[in-house]
């Protein structure tokens, strides 16, 4: 129903339900993140290992065989092409870790009534190029067969060892330091690692995504000068208008903008899914988990 045709009572009821629905969205997202963090923590590192494997084999002039981590990489890339960066927003262990530490920071700032830290938008755009530089360095090291020489400095290796409850980390001091610095960044900036340093994020952001399930907004119904969706977005993305089927490379499909819009103007490219974002999230999570489980991850 168009809001302009609603009665005063109907408008009040809609405004009353919105915070409750936003809270449900938040709990569903947190539940999906915890689920994947506990049951599928190796998805990120497996896909990353696939990238390293490809370029190491090329450097050795050896054939690229269908190893498990290569299959995981292909599955996540195909899933991202279809649904956008849903994996990054909901299923990546590193992304979920970042959201947890950012949540702690926001909770503390709220308690002491202090505005949470945030990078200026221009600085964020510049620093977002960092993930491509990290990817390029990883590719060169793997191609030259040198990545093993810097394994002790890998924060991903340290994270994997800790998650596996392997605390034999005496040989990984540089990696521990880098991981702690990344965690500090996660506290200070929303999706710090994903936006600025993640080599897999660099891969996912350049994939050709049709945008059928991307988020768009009905611009003609927006409040004048309102930028709530852009300010809430972890990547400061301005949403395309209805009819423009595109997914920005840095969109994590977190749907925070959907809950923030005061007019309820944001929906996926398939308009019939509007209002069913929770079910669509659960469906995608179940599909991703089922596929990864089927291939043996």
Can you put this structure into words, describing what you see?
The protein is mainly α and 297 residues long. It has helices at residues 8-39, 43-60, 68-83, 86-91, 93-111, 121-127, 130-143, 155-163, 173-188, 192-196, 199-205, 228-232, 256-260, 277-294, and strands spanning 215-217, 266-268. A two-stranded antiparallel ribbon has the order 1-2.
Give structural attributes.
297 residues; globular; two-stranded antiparallel sheet; single chain; 14 helices; mainly alpha; 2% strand
Explain briefly what this protein structure is.
The chain is mostly helical. Helix content is 60%, strand content 2%. The mean pLDDT is 83.
Rough outline: globular
* Approximate helicity band: 55-70%
The largest pleated sheet is described as: 2 strands, antiparallel
Contiguous uncertain segments of 5+ residues: none
Q: If helices are DSSP runs of H or I spanning 4 or more residues, what is the number of helices?
A: 14
Using only C-alpha atoms, the radius of gyration works out to 20 Å
Mean pLDDT: 83
How far apart are the first and last residues' alpha carbons, in Å?
45 Å
Q: What share of the residues does DSSP label as strand, in percent? A: under 5%
Provide the succession of SSEs: HHHHHHHHHHHEHHEH
How many β-strand stretches? 2
The structure class reads mainly alpha
Record the strand order, biggest sheet: 1-2
């Amino acid at each position: 129903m168009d809001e302009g045709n609603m009665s005063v009572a109907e408008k009040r009821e809609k405004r009353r339900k919105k915070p409750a629905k936003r809270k449900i969205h938040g709990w569903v997202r947190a539940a999906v993140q915890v689920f994947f963090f506990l049951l599928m923590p190796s998805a990120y590192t497996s896909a990353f290992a696939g990238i390293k494997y490809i370029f190491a084999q090329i450097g050795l002039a050896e054939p690229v065989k269908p190893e498990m981590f290569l299959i995981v990489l292909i599955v996540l890339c195909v899933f991202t092409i279809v649904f956008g960066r849903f994996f990054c927003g909901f299923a990546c262990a590193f992304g979920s870790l970042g959201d947890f530490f950012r949540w702690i920071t926001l909770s503390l700032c709220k308690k002491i009534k202090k505005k949470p830290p945030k990078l200026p938008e221009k600085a964020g755009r510049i620093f977002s190029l960092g993930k491509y530089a990290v990817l390029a360095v990883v590719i060169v090291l793997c191609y030259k067969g040198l990545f093993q020489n810097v394994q002790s400095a890998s924060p991903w290796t340290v994270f994997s060892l800790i998650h596996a409850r392997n605390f034999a980390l005496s040989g990984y001091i540089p990696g521990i330091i880098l991981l702690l610095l990344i965690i500090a960044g996660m506290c200070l900036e929303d999706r710090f690692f994903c936006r600025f340093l993640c080599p897999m994020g660099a891969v996912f952001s350049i994939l050709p995504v049709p945008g059928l399930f991307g988020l768009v907004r009905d611009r003609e119904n927006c409040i004048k000068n309102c930028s709530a969706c852009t300010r809430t977005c972890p990547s400061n993305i301005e949403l395309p208008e209805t009819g423009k089927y595109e997914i920005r490379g840095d969109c994590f499909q977190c749907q925070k903008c959907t809950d923030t819009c005061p007019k309820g103007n944001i929906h996926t490219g398939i308009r019939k899914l509007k209002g069913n974002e929770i079910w669509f999230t659960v469906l995608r999570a179940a599909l991703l988990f089922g596929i990864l489980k089927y291939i043996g991850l």
